[in-house]
# Entry
Amino acid sequence: IHPSSTTQKRRVPPSPPTLPVIGNLHQLGTYPHKTLQTLSRRYGPFMLVHMGRAPALIVSSARLAGEVMKTHDIAFSDRPLWSTARRLLYDGKDVSLAPYGEYWRQMRSLCVLQLLNNKRVQSFSSVREEELALLVKRIGDASPTPVDMSDAFATLTNGVVCRAALGRKYGEDEAIGRRFKTLLAEFVGLLGAFNVGDLIPSLGWINKLNGLDKKVERVAKEFDDFLEQVVEEHVSKLNKPYQQEERKYNNDDNNSTRNNNDSDGDGDSDNKDFVDVLLEFQRGNLAGFPLSKLSIKAIILDIFAAGTDTTYTVLEWAMTELLKHPKVMENLQREVREVAKGRLNITDEDLDRLRYLNAVVKETLRLHPPLPLLFPRAVTRDVTINGYDVAAGTMVITNAWAIGRDPDSWGPNPDEFKPERFLGNPVDYKGQNFELIPFGAGRRGCPGIAFAMAMDNFVLANLMLRFDWALPPGMRAEDLDMTQCTGLTIHRKVPLLAVATPYSS
Ligand code: HEM
# Structure
């Protein structure tokens, strides 16, 4: 065991003792966010650990997260070169893994300004409404039998993301839809898979032996084939504008799966899904840079990689906490039902008035950030921060999970689910308050906040309005299994079951 190297010439952040070759990997355990929290209590909120050969700076306090994501934002704006994720995401030709630089800047602004802006998010309100209606029907039909809410939420978010990105759903009633569902699950699983070769290059051969390399190749190829088909379908649709018109005025054949999302009727959104928008930019040379087909596929894949699992996880944990805390559920239902005033639905316009709902969602994101360690960053140049020297290329991991439970920010009972702490408290998750950073912050912060929150708030509000909820017979709130799964996105290990009773005012 090598002792900590804080006494070297360079002022290196404190670190736990390491083992040869594997560094601190043996200490990470099943839930790295929890073990890193424990280690940071001993070695401090600015700690260097060794993931095999790769040094990783672990940031575990709000103040230091602000230093990394705001004060020294540029120096911390790269992403590590992880081979599995790169292979899956077009070798970093997407947004989330692109190296910090001109290409990333161009792709990101396309994403932020054209795909995920507020107006575009609003344009999908009818998609959200239709997918919610399917969810409500599924729950109503099952009543009073318990419903697998985890699966129901996953289906809903996939449906919304699919329709926004691709213009249609790939339902389980079609072979391609079933294949797509499995492929997406494999894809997300691989993104969070442990790749020993990235961390200990001399052991890279293990990936061949355990089949990881082969699986990554297969999934990347299959997803590419799928996206190629989707893009080609859109291209031929664009090439036949009269068919588009025909579909627009005659959209009764497949209304529940095709988009019709010109919500304000100004013709501006024109049923456009993300692929349509990107192809238009490509054709009109509007992006300001040559937008290749590969870049289009990479952006779309990013939307699925970054936007589906994360968004449904919030719903899953929010519902879990509400079932565990019936008093909170009651308060939320009261608020939602008062605002609805006898109507059967909560609209997007109502959401701003739902203060308690907003607090419930914030509290869920605080205790259950879907990506507890965010997406890792990498340091672009040597930098001195918090009195320590951090070398270019160092991986940076921000423990949003630990920061969300830090008593210095959240008081004596930080593990308690208590939405009231957000009432009259301006702390928000949009990247300005570093004690609450489930979406990261700064130039590489999540561009999908509006898209995700439009869905989560809307769905949660409407489920609270339409149903009364209980745990399956015989289960008490204190028996509710809170075990987390492993991987990049932390959802429940066991599906959440709940019994719904339709509510009528
Ligand atoms: C609750 C849902 C979501 C959570 C918790 C979440 C969280 C995150 C986090 C932590 C990052 C890294 C931020 C950083 O490095 O500071 C990120 C990046 C990103 N997210 Fe999200 N996200 C969510 C939903 C979405 C959605 C719906 C989309 C798209 C439709 C999306 C697209 C992206 C993209 C493209 C990036 C990469 C940004 C870059 O590297 O420049 N996310 N997200």
User: Anything to note?
Assistant: The pocket of protoporphyrin IX containing FE is lined by residues 95-96, 108, 111, 116, 302-303, 306-307, 310-311, 314, 370-371, 374-375, 377, 438-441, 444-448, 451-452 (CB under 6 Å). The longest helix spans residues 212-239. The longest strand covers residues 46-51. The two ends are 67 Å apart (CA to CA).
